[in-house]
Amino acid sequence: MKRREFVIKGSLASLAVATSSSVLGNLNPFNGSNDVVNIGVIGTGSRGGGLTPIINKISNLNVAACCDILPFRLEEGLSAATGKAKGYSDYRELLDNKDIDAVLIATPFNTHSQIAIDSIDAGKHVYSEKTMAKGYSGIHSLVQKASQSSQIFQTGHQYHSSRLYNHVVNLIKNGEIGNITAFECQWNRNGNWRRPVPRPELERAINWRMYKEYSGGLVAELCSHQIDFVNWVLGVMPEKVMGVGGIDYWKDGRETYDNIHLIYSYPDGVKATFTCLTSNSMDDYQIKVMGDKGTIILDYEKAWFYPESNYKKEIGNVDGVSGATKQWEQGKGIPIKVEHAEPSKQALLDFRDSIVNNQTPNSNILTGARTAICVQMGLDAMYNNQIVKRNHEFDYLNPVKS
Question: How far from chain centre, in Å, is Cα 2?
Answer without folding.
Answer: 31
